[in-house]
Structures
1.
Amino acid sequence: MNVRRSAAVLAAAVAVFGSAAAPAAFADDAKPSPSAALPSGLYGKSDPKFDGVFRQSYALLAQHTEGVEPAAKAVDWLTGQQCASGGFAAYRADSSEPCNSKTAVDSNSTAAAVQALAALGGQDKTVKKSVDWLKSVQNKDGGWGNTPGLPSDANSTGIVVGALVAAGRNPADVKSQDGKSAYDALPKLAMDCGKDGGAFGLADMKSGKLAPNAYATAAGVLGSLGKGLVVSAPKKSEDAAPKCAKPDTATQAASNGVGYLLDTLGKTDDHLMSSMPGSTDQPDFGTTADSVLALAAAGQGERAKKSAEWLAGNSADWAKQSGPAAYSKLIFAAHAAGLDARDFGGADLVKQLNATGPAPETSSKSPSDADSDEKKDDDGGVSVWWIIGVGMVAGIGIGFLYSGNRKKQQP
């Protein structure tokens, strides 16, 4: 299978599973087979085949954001997943076996791990190896695809930018062999004003053309602004929506994307709706949380807070069904909106997250203490079915994380 066809399959998988309820196999109540016992250091009870590293990275980063010191074995499990090349695959059942050409390392798992491990500290060598690997698979246009060789997309490029920043690298200085950085690639992934509304696009499987997509837009805005998953609430909120203009720079592309998110959120009571066929009138909790981060990063504090408050009042069932990555995304949203993750619509998100894995070393710090601390301081051989699986996780882990409860709601 050639790269272009693989890219199309990935795009389709992300488009479908990124905007729809995750299949039951990806919900947290989907147990792995009895013969595949879960590692004791891993967060979540669902089969980790497609999202183990991702959900672990989110969980550890969310705990750190709230002043919780994760369990040592949870951190050890994550670092043990790294390949000698520096890249991370979605999950390796036997990390004692060396990675080979069939190990499906990917940019998204690697970038998520970098953001978590860089925040925790004490993992400089692991982080550097991963950043070096990410640099080695950078596309000529300056961006990243999900796996080496795939065309750049806004979601992968956005999360890699967050990893570079977390590792102390200036994304503008990380350039391809053609001298391009992520800030050159992202405007090319942005749509025009008018009918496309300035959104970032996701490639259509059949035509290969970009189509406006809220999931891609939230990631594209964060990447274009040089932000990662942890965004501080803005001290002063912008009052007006930005004006859309030609996206000839990353800054303008981000501004346009913010306008698109504001418009889309405003149509449905400050939250996004699923665009999956057959999921009429179903909320998209995960991408709403992503949008909170993007809006806060752009200074739209009041609008970010409104969407976060909607999540606080409506996301409990979704988070319970979806597991640690969902709790983590809500914690990131609460942090970006200036809300209390320990009293989020009456729920203690930190306690709920901690309960999905090994007990943390300590959780004595308050969010304000954590904020004070923050101020102080082989790729290849990828089959089409693996790409489809990773595409599913792109929807689950990065953007949408839907509930597996098909009877009550399929966000």
Note: Residues 258 and 295 are 6 Å apart (CA to CA).
2.
Amino acid sequence: MPEAKRVMLLDSASLYFRAFYGVPESVTAPDGMPVNAVRGFTDMVSTLITRYRPTDFVACLDYDWRPAFRVDLVPSYKAHRVMTETADGEPDVEETPDLLAPQVPVLLEVLKAAGLCSVGAAGFEADDVIATLAHRHDQRGELVDVVSGDRDLIDLTTERVRVLYTGKGIAKIVEFTPDEVRQQYGVPAEHYADFAILRGDPSDGLPGVAGIGVKTAAIVVSEFGPIEQIVAAAESGDKAMSASVRAKVLAARDYLAVAPAVVRGRQDVPVPELDTAIPAAPADLDMLAALAEQFGIGSATGRLTTALEKLASLR
């Protein structure tokens, strides 16, 4: 029988930022260019492929880390991450560290030479690309592993979609299944985003509902479901909702009306059908060898080649 399809969707920026800060800047190419993020990211990919044995792989990219459609709804969305202003006083893009920016094209070239798919979509975050692809493959009855250090993606978890949370590093991945989400947060996985909306998320500039903390948010979501139903219960005077919670929800109606569209990943991103299959060996050995020599990353590309070959031998 053919092997069951298991698609690994990588939140690429989450991993290469972690690699950049986790591997010393003293790791350099022969010309002195830092390649710590390239080496660390490549090693992470090798480890993930070896440990989880996916049949397919997509490195999902941020083409817009702060999309206008989200900022228009919640102006504070990621506002604290805006590092500069343009000459007109408008917010400029988030600054990638000077030593990281030149490394991103290199690590994408490594993926290309290895034959591993990468994709982004204009006007969307990697989260949206991941949500679209996770939903697509889930609907087809295929297994999905979402790899990210961003808790927002936990709400993608289903019986077929597992979130591999890397917040504490690749060596300490937390595997979120629906049972694990409920055990850790006290809410159904499909309503994790609603839980996050209520409690707020300073890392994304989401204020939350004043006076509602983690415990209360979990109780309210477990009892009433998604934000739309929580607001409806408050507006109708549902006796199952305490007067205190009702008052807090009603006071935050404007925020709650727009927050779901900001927090929930889009599942309608125009991502084309992709060749996502992991090859039995690097797609372009000459290109990979050239990258290894130019950037002094032969050990990392060697481990990636070994991971691909080992995976092929197990099929």
Note: The radius of gyration is 21 Å.
